[in-house]
Specification:
This protein has 5 helices and 13 strands. By secondary structure, it is of the alpha+beta class. The protein has a single domain, classed as D-Maltodextrin-Binding Protein, domain 2, CATH 3.40.190.
């Protein structure tokens, strides 16, 4: 389920960094079950009683905005410059709180807590908000590649965006798992 309230945001707010929403405007329902997916090492949970199966390739992030956004602002040259920009925040439903954008260049690791007028909890909603000109987004590279190629988006801080371990399927480390469960894990397993 996905509900967007972006159209209710003021178009004037796009140009003004001072026009902010301090509450999330998108919520996605997530079913609960015997397993879950997340990037490897994401979160501070004790996963000692679980197994993990890699289900996707490594992920590289990209900081993107529209050409119109950058027409009136200089592109950030370092991650700290993002504090001068209108960035679209990601609320992490599983960890509560906002995601700090992670960067790495020549061994220098930086986490930046960005600020902006929108807080969303899904990548698709963030991409749509970026395309609509609400600010900069921090999104998976493969999600924005087509928009970069057709000129709808501009990428910045590329040298600072490194790869993260891809998604893994986590599940209880029971000795006796069902045949259906094993078939699902085997079907989703990434061999790259």
């Amino acid at each position: 389920m996905q509900t967007l309230a972006i159209p209710s945001a003021s178009p004037r707010g796009r140009a003004s960094h001072n026009s902010k929403r301090s509450h999330p405007i998108l919520w996605e329902a997530r079913p609960r079950g015997d397993c879950g997916e997340r990037p490897r090492g994401d979160g501070n949970r004790d996963l000692s009683a679980t197994k993990a199966a890699r289900i996707g390739p490594d992920v590289r992030m990209a900081v993107v905005g529209t050409p119109a956004y950058f027409a009136s602002r200089p592109a950030p040259l370092r991650p700290q410059h993002l504090l001068e920009h209108n960035c679209i925040n990601l609320r992490l439903p599983t960890l509560g709180g906002l995601y700090a954008w992670e960067f790495d260049c020549d061994g220098e690791q930086i986490r930046v807590r960005v600020d902006g007028q929108l807080i969303l909890n899904g990548s698709r909603a963030i991409l749509q908000a970026v395309l609509d000109g609400f600010g900069l987004g921090y999104l998976p590279e493969d999600m924005v590649d087509g928009h970069l190629r057709n000129g709808a988006l501009v990428r910045v801080l590329e040298d600072w965006c490194s790869r993260f371990p891809g998604y893994h399927l986590y599940y209880p480390s029971r000795k006796q798992s069902s045949l259906a469960h094993r078939l699902v894990v085997d079907a989703l397993r990434h061999d790259g």
